[in-house]
Design brief:
The chain is of the alpha/beta class and 472 residues long. It folds into three domains: 64 residues, Orthogonal Bundle (Arc Repressor Mutant, subunit A); 114 residues, Aspartate Aminotransferase, domain 1, CATH 3.90.1150; 220 residues, Type I PLP-dependent aspartate aminotransferase-like (Major domain) (Aspartate Aminotransferase, domain 2), CATH 3.40.640.10. A hairpin with a 2-residue loop joins strand 6 and strand 7. Helix 4 crosses helix 10, helix 5 packs parallel to helix 10 and helix 11 runs parallel beside helix 13. It starts with 13 loop residues before the first helix and ends in an 11-residue tail after the last helix.
């Protein structure tokens, strides 16, 4: 009746179903303005339901102004409500993909979540919910949960030798939120943001979407070429000096010092993204640029690799002159992060569970790295050269004389292998065409061995393993 089809087992009440159906038919013009609706008694009888249910639906329509009602007269549709003409939606045809599933996904930046101490984390979340004072559940401002800031300060000292005051630490929803805030915070009219080439597409996209000018610094095996900044009017410089993403180089002290001198001389800030330096397998941890000069360096960290990506907790260490504006920007973005997760992470750090977990995972990833490198050597011999394999959860592989482009990605995906050409991380996509990025942190040792063999067989099958130059 009146196009109303009731679903008696639905979670939505019958009265709301009637309201939503009549509302939709009014807005789409199927029920004309000033048209009289059936009486509540008549509609209830036609639908086989109680009159009270229909009365509730009519009350909703009346409250929101879709109908008008007068004593002794039928309820009528109000005027001026027709928005668009009704068109029955085409039901999507059932589709099925004949493509084989992805058997080996060498995605980057993905930790092994199977080894995280989930039961311990769940207990810490429960304890936070029980023990947090009521005032901590109120709006607490944009800085973050203070006990977490204090524990991060201690964690940075233990893991990186950084001396950071808790008051300079600001909690974020991961590193990307920090970068969004910093780009707006640091932009100077007409002056460029300098980033590495190649670099993570996230920072490039943030800057480009805001319409800010961009300058790229070419990257070699030692990181960014700082000399290209000479003579540039710079808003800020973004670098990954401890483990350049994606090539893996370590920015040497000479380049770091030159970058700091430029920042001081021309009054700009350096954004240091330290995204995975906890996992270093050769030699001692690399000191951050922040340790050389904290006045012109903004240190950005994240717990996505050390804890788990969905936690969405990171932090920025801000120089004093930026803190008031940061608080203003953050206040009108989302105010603060969820406090339960912050409290649980603070306890995870305080009880040194983070230290223990990172130490364990460093050994796990070191073993996986060895398996990856030996599998590459067994499959490809000396024809493939690894880049940046001393740290992190990925390695860049150089295949001299070869070029990997979009068709290669499509073909390898069809073969059940997902790999990532380095050109995806280059602004102009015309450099490093002979390199693939291979992530291995989330894969088992068996998956790594099988995946490398599958990649070799795929390249060999497509006449790409012989080292001949070929456009794809």
């Amino acid at each position: 009746m009146w196009g109303i089809e009731l679903r008696f087992k639905d979670e939505i009440s019958l009265s709301r179903q009637i309201f939503l159906t009549l509302k939709e038919r009014i807005v789409t013009g199927q029920i004309s303005q000033r048209e009289a609706l059936p009486s509540t008694r008549e509609l209830a009888k036609g639908l086989g339901i109680s009159r009270n249910t229909v009365c509730e639906a009519y009350d909703m329509l009346l409250t929101e102004g879709f109908i008008i009602s007068r004593q002794g007269a039928p309820s009528r549709v109000a005027e001026g409500l027709h928005i668009h003409t009704y068109k029955k939606a085409d039901m999507p045809a059932e589709t099925r993909s004949d493509s084989p599933p992805i058997l080996w996904d060498f995605k980057t930046g993905q930790p092994d979540l199977s080894l995280f101490p989930w039961s311990l984390w769940s207990q810490m979340i429960r304890d936070a919910a029980i023990c947090l004072p009521v005032q901590e559940l109120e709006y607490n401002g944009p800085k973050g949960y203070q006990p977490l800031c204090e524990e991060i300060s201690q964690w940075l000292f233990r893991s990186r030798g950084m001396e950071v005051h808790p008051e300079d630490i600001f909690i974020t929803s991961g590193a990307m939120q920090a970068l969004h805030l910093l780009v707006d915070l640091l932009y100077k009219e007409g002056q460029v943001f300098a980033i590495e080439d190649p670099s993570h597409p996230g920072i490039r996209t943030v800057i480009a979407d805001k319409g800010y000018p961009l300058h790229t610094m070419q990257v070699d095996e030692q990181g960014a070429d700082i000399s290209s900044l000479e003579g540039k009017a710079v808003s800020a410089v973004y670098v990954t000096p401890s483990h350049q993403f994606p090539l893996g180089g370590i920015l040497p002290a000479g380049r770091r010092a030159a970058l700091i001198r430029l920042a001081i001389e021309h009054d700009f800030y350096i954004i240091e993204d330290d995204y995975d330096s906890e996992f270093r397998y050769i030699g001692p941890p690399v000191s951050p640029i922040y340790s050389m000069d904290s006045s012109h360096v903004i240190y950005v960290g994240t717990f996505s690799k050390t804890v788990f990506p969905a936690l969405r907790l990171g932090f920025a260490v801000l120089p004093k002159p930026l803190q008031a504006r940061w608080k203003h920007y953050r206040n009108f973005m989302d105010v603060q992060n969820p406090v339960l997760e912050q409290a649980a992470l603070a306890e995870f750090l305080r009880k040194r569970k983070m230290d223990k977990h990172v130490q364990h995972m460093r050994q796990v990833y070191s073993d996986k790295r060895k398996i990856l490198l030996s599998s590459i050597e067994n499959a490809f011999g000396n024809s493939v050269r690894p880049w940046g394999d001393a740290s992190g959860l990925h390695v860049a592989l150089q295949f001299p004389g070869m070029e990997f482009e979009k068709q290669f990605v499509r073909d390898s995906t069809e073969a059940g292998i997902r790999v990532y050409p380095l050109t995806q991380f280059c602004p102009a996509q015309d450099n490093h065409k002979d390199k693939l990025l291979i992530g291995y942190g989330h894969l088992s040792q068996t998956q790594i061995q099988e995946g490398v063999r599958a990649l070799h067989q795929f390249l060999k099958k497509n006449d790409l393993a012989a080292g001949e130059a070929k456009l794809l």
